[in-house]
Amino acid sequence: MNRFLRTTVGFLTSLRLTVALLILSILLVFAATLDQVHLGVWGVQAKYFHSFVVMTKVPGTAVQLPVFPGGYLLGLLLLANLIAAHTCRFRFTWRKSGIWLTHLGLIVLLAGEGLSGLLQHDNQMRIDVGQTRRYTESVRETELAVVDVTDPSYDQVVAVPVSLLQARGAIQHPKLPFTLKPVAYLANSSLVPLAQAPNPPAAATLGFGTLEAALPAPLTYKEDEGNWPSAYVELAGPEGAIGTFLVSTMLVEPQEFSYGNRTWRISLRAARDYLPFAITLLKFTHQLYPGSDIPKDFASTIRLKSDDGADDRQVRIFMNNPLRYGGRAFYQAGYANNDHTAVLQVVSNPGWRLPYLACGLMALGLAVQFGIHLAGFLRRRVSVPAGARPVSAPVAALP
Amino acid sequence: MKRFLPAAILLFAVIWVALSLLPAPERGAFDLAAFGRLPVLADGRMKPLDTIARNALLMLQGRQRLETKEGRTVAPVQWLLDVFYRPAEADAYPVFRIDNPDVLSLFNLTPADGQGRVRFSFIQLQAGVGELDRQARLAAETESALRSPFQRGVIDLQQHLAYYERLGYSCQPPDRPDFAADLADAARFRACRPGFEAMNTFGLLRLIPPAAGGEWSTPGRILAAAAAPADVDTRVFLFAAIGHAWSDGQSESFNALVRNYRLELAAGFPGLVRRCGLEAYFNRADPFATSESLYLLAFLLAAISWLRWPETLGPAAYRLAGLACALATAGIAARMWLEGRPPVTNLYSSALFIGWGSAVLCLVLERLNRNGVAVSAGAFLGFATLVIAHHLSLGGDTMEMMRAVLDSNFWLSTHVVTVTVGYASTFLAGFLAIVYILRGVLTKSLDKATADSLGRMVYGIVCFATFFSFIGTVLGGIWADQSWGRFWGWDPKENGALIIVLWNSTILHCRWGGLIRQRGLMVLAVIGNIATAWSWFGVNMLGIGLHSYGFTQAAFYGLVVFAASQLLLIGLAGLPLARWRSFRPAAA
Fold first, then answer.
1. Is A26 close to B499, i.e. CB distance below 8 A?
2. What is the reported pTM?
3. Which residues touch B232 (CB under 8 Å, ≥6 apart)?
4. Contact A112/A230 with Cβ under 8 angstroms?
5. Is there a contact between B405 and A319 (Cβ–Cβ < 8 Å)?
6. Gap between the Cα atoms of A31 and A23, Å rounded
7. Contacting B residues, span 34-53, partner chain A, CB-CB under 8 Å
8. What is the interface pTM, i.e. ipTM, of the complex?
9. Sign, CA torsion B446/B451/B453/B457
10. Which end of chain B has less neighbouring CB within 10 Å, N or C?
11. How much is the CA Rg of chain B, to the nearest whole Å?
12. Which pLDDT tens digit goes with each residue over B117-141?
């Protein structure tokens, strides 16, 4: 047992492991970069970096095989290696203070990156000039929204994440007088008139689905294309089935129906994150360099008003100048509709400060360490007179 | 004699540099240089017409020098004047470079029809333009990264032809040979209306300065808006008059018109006229070309110095490289002043800066070691990066405006410069390692002192490179966090930089852990060359991601050849030490 422990500790603290992990990381990053042509940046992140092992499909089959350690695994091993080496092998000396600082920074950096992978949310806000928005929308995630709009003064929203639609089990919610049963979920789809779709994935009995059908389409990872999910959802009350709706992100307006003396709206839409404040777009400007189509500047002037009334002010968001507010950062990301619509990127990441801290530590550590090396090098140079160097001799002590 | 030779070589080089920097005497009666200095607004930037002419020729035919079929040399500005005012002559110049034989066959042409087998005139291509457009439309449906060489050739040529034709609408419609007279007469002015509309649609060059605080404008826009000659800005007439003088061969009138116009501009826009004058001078002096030759010479002298006459050729190489570096420094400084930007703004300037950075580092190392090793690596890198820069300049204006997200001098001067220093030093370590391998395997000149000195240099530079590539990458992350909302996004360029950081730290850990010694250090440093070349160019070739601002197809083959050569060197280093000529036991 003791020997096993010693071997394990020896393995975990060894520089050989460090080198092996570094090389594996390089290979992982390289492969992921190449694969980005096919998978897109988000697909690559999920497959290579935010995973413990990289799985690959055996060509021609659906079998997934583990082929390479993933980003989480390598990161954790590096972390373990680093911490083990520092607790068991390294002794602190001032000559090595730079290395300690650098490695401490690296620990913070790896932890921060892991935290970002788990906690960071990227949303968007598309907002027209003059419009007020109180929510942001996810770029890649969708949700099924069932809204009770009977009371004109407020909406009661029940949002169902896609994972539940894919699971196909009946969904029951205390705020809903009926259950939702997903019949079919298409991660990417196209809508065609019912007459042109001989075999629709399911039959809708209510609303839009009585006219058109959703057909599955291959998933796309291209930067300039998106996926358009659709779903067939069956609604059932205690007395039996109400009907089946076809919902799709391609439909702009939600479908309305009445049940139990209340008015409901059902839609499949980008997953929303409701904000404790409101944003109104006052003005959007988009400048080109004169005589060219090279963009010079984009800027959104917004009014920010918090629900508690503590904040009510005007903010200008432009390139390289985000607004950080309420745990989120708003970036000028794009525009549409002839400069009538601004697209803001909204990121929430509780760990966003960690990389700054980590990098400060590492930069300082490297500067100290290499500074010590340089000083030593220059001192030695001074102490060895030029004439003392041997002129020509075969090198004996080479590897 | 030996004592004075380095100084003499330096003196000759200085004279050569000075001659290259002197303004060229005007050979003909027309003051072409003065016309070339006139400012114009194009692609969002004020620049001299000389730059327009040179960049257009570079883009169309891959070089600035233009030779007619009869072997007569045409200066870039002269060519531009002909494009503006004598379209029939301009159409006969072979300025379209076509390398792809399949593209040529669209025009029923063979290489033998072209000047130098690759350059063709507009007249030769005219008949096939319709078919070219059809092919270009077909090719446009394929995603740019997936296009075949033929499709790329078709699209490039179509864009070149369109650009050339649009240049012809800058000052007057190509079908009105006596435009000055057209503008003078009210009836003829009305008859030109369709020509004005065409100029307004196609004209690219905003030649006419604003009357009061407005924007620079194309002659076409002013003419299209004018009801009668009286509404037209006098400068539009001026450009027509210059054209008249040019086509009629009236050099005195041409020179007077240009001179007076420049004086008038200098009163209203003194800074602009000065800047455009300097840029035209900079174009002609071309300090980077001279620097390139000097670096090559320095490298050759340094390489020979390892084998023969080290105490003479070594210092000579050091001085030449120093001169080349000073010249490149001046060139980079001039670009910075012209642009009002930090040194690195695009792929082209990153090549200049990588060469400059490694040359400076090497000159410092050479001062410390004085064995002709560092200077050879520095001179070689200086030379190679300038060659690469030259090829990158074929894409168009190298001082293009910065897209909105890049429009930040703070981040350009911190992140971009630091990460470029990281690239430069990683390359430098790799090239010093190559010197070690080549000298050790192929020559007997790698004695223990030199080998140890190289070992120290490579190790030191790897430390330096780790530091700068790490800081540069991190600053990039912070910039990304400020402008896109994430510190790290696994974008290809970010990954490339990360690979360099990881590789440099791998080398350091191998060395600290005693896994490698001198030779191993050299081999790993050479692999660093591949990693850096990949990050610098390879990721741009993927054509994806936020940083894919410098997609270059031709560079792909260069990259493959480079990587193969590095692998070959690694193989060479893998030879048993007994086979290394330097380390072979001395035959008694």
1. yes
2. 0.78
3. B183, B222, B223, B226
4. no
5. yes
6. 12
7. 41-45
8. 0.79
9. positive
10. C
11. 27
12. 888 999 888 888 888 888 888 888 8
